[in-house]
Write a structure and sequence with these properties.
Layout: H1 30-89, H2 92-101
């Protein structure tokens, strides 16, 4: 039995490739590409430093605002305490006690009269 190669005639045999001609390579401008890369890296570094500086400034501002909020709450508490003291100082019972210490007594209802200031 013999093997038959059905595609042997259909595939042409390739001719050997010609020897490569020596082509003179052009000098590359690497300095320009490197300079451009350095420029972009520097630009991104400056932008990143700017973002970090802005974040630090915002953080400092937030710390200052927090400190001011605490101070505001403390001052509001002090104001409330002072308002309470003023209110208790003006209370009728306290005024009556102080008046009695000075020898004053409340007037009786029979001795009380009202003046009408609109009549002349």
């Amino acid at each position: 039995m013999t093997a038959v190669d059905w595609f042997a005639e259909a595939v042409p045999v390739a001719a050997p490739a010609p020897a490569p001609a020596r082509v003179r390579a052009r000098p590359r401008r690497r300095s320009r590409r490197v300079g451009g890369g350095i420029f972009w890296i520097s630009a991104f570094a400056v932008l990143l430093a700017g973002v970090v500086a802005v974040n630090v400034a915002v953080l400092r501002a937030n710390v200052a605002v927090d400190r001011l909020d605490k101070q505001q709450l403390q001052l509001q508490a002090e104001n409330a305490a002072l308002a309470s003291q003023v209110s208790s100082a003006g209370a009728a019972i306290r005024i009556e006690r102080t008046a009695r210490r000075f020898g004053l007594v409340p007037a009786s209802a029979a001795d009380t009269m009202y003046l009408d200031l609109d009549k002349r």
